[in-house]
Amino acid sequence: QVQLVESGGGSVQAGGSLRLSCAASQYSASSRCMGWFRQAPGKEREGVARISRFGSSTDYADSVRGRFTISRDDAKNTVYLQMNSLKPEDTAMYYCAARLDCAFWLENSITYWGQGTQVTVSS
Question: What pLDDT is stored for residue 73 in this prediction?
Answer without folding.
Answer: 95
